[in-house]
Write a structure and sequence with these properties.
The protein has 192 residues and is an alpha/beta fold. It is built from eight helices and five strands, in the order ααβαβαβαβαβαα. It is 42% helix and 15% strand. The strands form two sheets. The chain has a three-stranded parallel beta sheet, sandwiched between helices. The chain has a two-stranded parallel ribbon with strand order 1-2.
């Protein structure tokens, strides 16, 4: 697994069908796009090449330092890292509402629950891609559902796109593109 994470070509990295079109559609009209990840900075070039290969729009990518520190040998706390970055982004854009998109596999539901409680009125909705078969993750998603912000737990990009289109955040043409792309087989389970 580590070999596939740290090596390989951008055009061979897996992606979620429909995700690039979803992000392009949400980016229309000048909406900024931020990727907040716990991946190490030494993957930045590979990630950016992958994002470009799949046609993701202009974005700002936030990663993290990996290495030995006085607190830990390798970073283990995704929550505080991602929360700190979300706080910085929202401080820089004090009047901008946010749509948060994450997945159920790690700690995005816990992070988003805390962030919403700290920033009432800043988050329009949350989309969580259901990628974890672990039933223990369900409790975190359920807690996020009580945050007072619309939550969509989706198995694919199409579910997110349909909700975004219903809310007026996505053009019908983009929804059609995502529907067409959704039928394609990805290279494997992964992110884009």
């Amino acid at each position: 697994m580590a070999r596939s994470l740290f090596s390989g070509r951008a055009d061979q990295r897996p992606h979620f069908p429909g995700a690039p079109a979803l992000y392009r559609g949400l980016h229309q009209g000048g909406n900024p796009l931020f990727f907040v990840s716990s991946s190490p900075w030494n993957l930045h070039d590979l990630l950016e090449e992958t994002f470009d290969h799949y046609g993701l729009p202009e974005r700002v990518t936030f990663l993290r330092d990996w290495g030995i520190s006085d607190q830990e040998i390798l970073p283990t706390d995704n929550i505080e890292h991602k929360l700190a970055l979300l706080r910085q982004i929202t401080a820089f854009f004090p009047d901008l509402p946010f749509l948060l998109i994450g997945d159920s596999g790690q700690q995005d539901p816990e992070i988003y629950t805390r962030f919403i409680r700290e920033n009432p009125g800043r988050v329009l909705a949350v989309y969580i891609r259901d990628v974890s078969p672990d039933p223990r993750r369900d409790a975190a998603v359920q807690a996020l559902g009580t945050s007072g912000v619309p939550l969509l737990l989706a198995s694919d990009s199409l579910g997110m796109a349909r909700d975004a289109a219903a809310r007026g955040w996505l053009d019908a043409a983009v929804l059609t593109e995502i529907e067409a792309d959704q039928g394609k087989t990805p290279l494997g389970a992964g992110v884009a």
